[in-house]
Amino acid sequence: MHAVRIVWRVTRLNFRAQLEYRSEFLLMVAIGAIWQVSVIVFATVLLTRFTGMGGWDSSEVLLIPATRMLAHGLMVLFLGRMFGIGRDIQEGRIDVYLTRPMPVHRQVQLAYFPTNAIGDLTVAAGLMAGALSRSHLDWTAVRISYLIAAIIGGMLLEAALFTALASASLRFPAAEYWARWLEELLGTFGSYPLNVLPKAVGGFLTYALPLAFVAYFPAAVLTGHGHDTGVPYWLAAASPLLGVLVYLASRLLWRRSLAHYAGVNA
Amino acid sequence: MAVLHAWRAARVTPLGELHTPPRMTAVLLRLTVQVVLVASLWTGLYAHTGTTAGLTRDQAVTYAVLAVLASRLRELDQYAGRDSVIQHMHYGTIVYWYLRPLPPQRYYALRALGEQLYGFAWALGGYAVALAAGVVEPPRSAAVAGVFALSLLLGQWVLYYIMLVTDQWCFWALRNNAAVMILVFAQNLLSGVYAPLWFFPDWFVTLSAFMPFQATLSVPLSLYIGRIPLSDAAGQLAIQAAWVVILALLTRFLWHRAARRVISQGG
């Protein structure tokens, strides 16, 4: 309870700190929104020009970017500070965190308030509302529960990927370069049915870089395309659980990497 | 002597890159994977579609792959070298740019030139491999190749000025993180990196015609794939050149105003 109170107080202070530069604050909210709009624009253009993408109708396809964007927005809000950790390592801030009586991971997450998450989540919620209103599916309690689980699982899976890269950054600060690419890949290739891609490429985005589990597989299960994904149905359906497991594994990796951390100059 | 100084300033970032082999390996891997993914995506999308928005499958794939390669031209990590304008403004070291015998605007231009030439070497290497592998189509004639090269040069010139404006913004706002992110978004969307502008609705294409972004990439690539015919090339090149002049005058004015805002040791 004490820890929660500290987290809340630090977050409030961080939020006020972001308000110090008002124009930057508003621009960051805007950038979160328009960054997500770019994903919508891309998906809309593809849907308009290439109807029946991968055998999915447009209302079904919309569920993929909506799920991914909500998961991404929540990840940015709660667990997103792993993204820029290379800079913290280069500037020796991790060394300072190690001397304080709070877990380093939590200190990293509390380093600043992610203003852009406000814009991210606003647009993502709007897109999800649009996707659900256009959907022809019967939204039973089970489906809604699965969708919520998929969003949380997607958030954790995305966080796990960035945490794994952050763990690598503890030894190789330049690994942050990969984080920028990962975010770009998630935005570009995580928003439509991956069965339009050749099998080898789809396999890469499933097993080497598991972005198919973030939104594509859960959306396929929800819309009845779960048997056409190229992976066993149970594996596609287990995407939310996989997110939890991979995140726990990434935290173990982080702890292990931190134990071997020797400073950027060591 | 001036040439020697220019050479030394221009090679700073490329030298930094050459001394970090892991980063170069990462760039190579990223570029390869991105090209394969993008080519696969557009090939897959066209599997059940013929010509759409005036583009055939080969034209769309060529456009998309060239867009990925062109995005390498100015994608260097200046932040790691602590020589970005925002860092100098934050630490107060921007004043040193004004104390050197080299004017800040020339230093900035030389650094950018070095980066763009280094990025161009990457893009050219990628293009040669993609061409040999048959992923991209060759230009349809020598005239198309020549016009494309000229248009690409003008496009990079426009891009240089756009990036300069966002850096100059730091002299007034101290921070430009959001401005840079908005620029990246606008640049990617309105220049056709996400998808060729020809796929967008007419109103969107008309709107983008009034902004400088499409001059950076969409115009040269459309000329290359033949979506803009050679007969229309002169007009497009003139528009690109006009943007170069307009942005050159604007950034010159901003450099002049920015210099008045720099104070040393409290003024």
From TrEMBL, chain A:
It comes from the Bacteria. The chain crosses the membrane at residues 25-50, 62-83, 110-132, 144-170, 200-219, 231-249. The keyword Ribonucleoprotein does not apply. This is ABC transporter permease. The lineage of its organism: Bacteria, Bacillati, Actinomycetota, Actinomycetes, Kitasatosporales. InterPro entries: ABC-2_transporter-like. Keywords: Membrane, Transmembrane, Transmembrane helix. Coiled coil: none annotated.
